[in-house]
Amino acid sequence: MRVLVTGADGQLGKAVVEVLGRRGHEIIPTNKRNMDITDERAVEAIFSQRDMDAVIHCAAYTNVEKAEEEWELCGKINIDGTRNIARSCERKKIKMVYISTDYVFDGEGTPPYCIAAQKHPVNMYGWSKHMGEEIVQEEVEKYFIVRTSWIFGNSENDFVKKMCGLAKEGKTLKVVNDQFGKPTYAWDLAEVIVDLLEAEKYGIYHVANDGDCTWYEFAKEIFKQLEKNIDVLPVSSEEFLQKAKRPIDSRLKCSVILPHWKDRLRRYLGGRK
To answer: What is the pLDDT of residue 124?
Structure first.
């Protein structure tokens, strides 16, 4: 297949590009420099100039905290940009993979959330991804929506790398201990995305690694595997003031069983993919 990947230089996009290449697919990598997804004409131009069989839409505004202030930019990228990609996919009658999030749920229901659970996002980022889902379902016939959570791996800015940086400072850390989720290894997620694309089993999927934790438990496990003696204090969401409200418990009932996140964390910290 010839596959266009948006956000090809991002955390997930880089992993997707590598997996596609390893499996012998032809890749059309795009980023904000060679295709501005918020510019309808720019998107149409790329799609009209190149033949392709599918699009994996990894590009997104993902800064949950900043989205509360930069809501226009967040909406422009995650809603308008997704609409531009979706419409271009449907004009060419090709497949589209849309990457979504556990943050489409409010975290106040009974976890784990099944695919059909009612969506009710509690922050701008979650709302923008919810709207993206709606657009894809309205505009595209052959679509995959992949909801995932707490992605780590293949980035200098993920939670793991941030904790590694803080470990070097040796300071006491305060980490939220009342928000529950499922960490997801970027490389495992990329493999599943390509699996779905090759199988052509359209629909909505929940994909995350096995096991769950709080952010505090995640941090503790990182330092344990690093063999770093760092004081980590558990705090509540109320104590850790943030502009964007987070779901308290957004654990997903997954469609695919992946290895435990602790095993994948060990691979990541060990420098393996």
So the answer is: 98
Q: Which of 209, 154, 188, 162 has the alpha carbon at shortest distance from 10?
A: 154
Q: Establish if 102 belongs to a structural domain.
A: yes
Range of the domain at 98: 2-157+183-211+251-259
Say which CATH number the domain at 83 has: 3.40.50.720
| pLDDT score of 241 | 82
The tens digit of pLDDT for each residue in 36-57 reads 999 999 999 999 999 999 999 9
Cα–Cα distances (Å) from 195 to 28, 115, 141, 188, in that order, read 18, 19, 19, 11
Assess if residue 142 is contained within a domain: yes
Domains contained in the chain, number? 1
Task: For residue 113, indicate whether it is catalytic.
Answer: no
Q: Which helix (H) or strand (E) holds 2?
A: strand 2-6
pLDDT of residue 273: 67
Q: Which of 125, 185, 205, 216 is catalytic?
A: 125
For 236, counting Cβ atoms within 10 Å of its Cβ (0-12 exposed, 13-18 middle, 19+ buried), the class is exposed
230 part of a folded domain = no
Q: How far apart are CA 43 and CA 34, in angstroms?
A: 10
How is residue 199 annotated by DSSP? H
In a domain, 245, yes or no: no
Residue pLDDT, tens place only, 164-195: 988 888 788 999 999 999 999 999 999 999 99
Of 197, 205, 192, 196, which is closest to residue 264 (Cα–Cα)? 192
**CB-based contact 55:25 (threshold 8 Å):** no
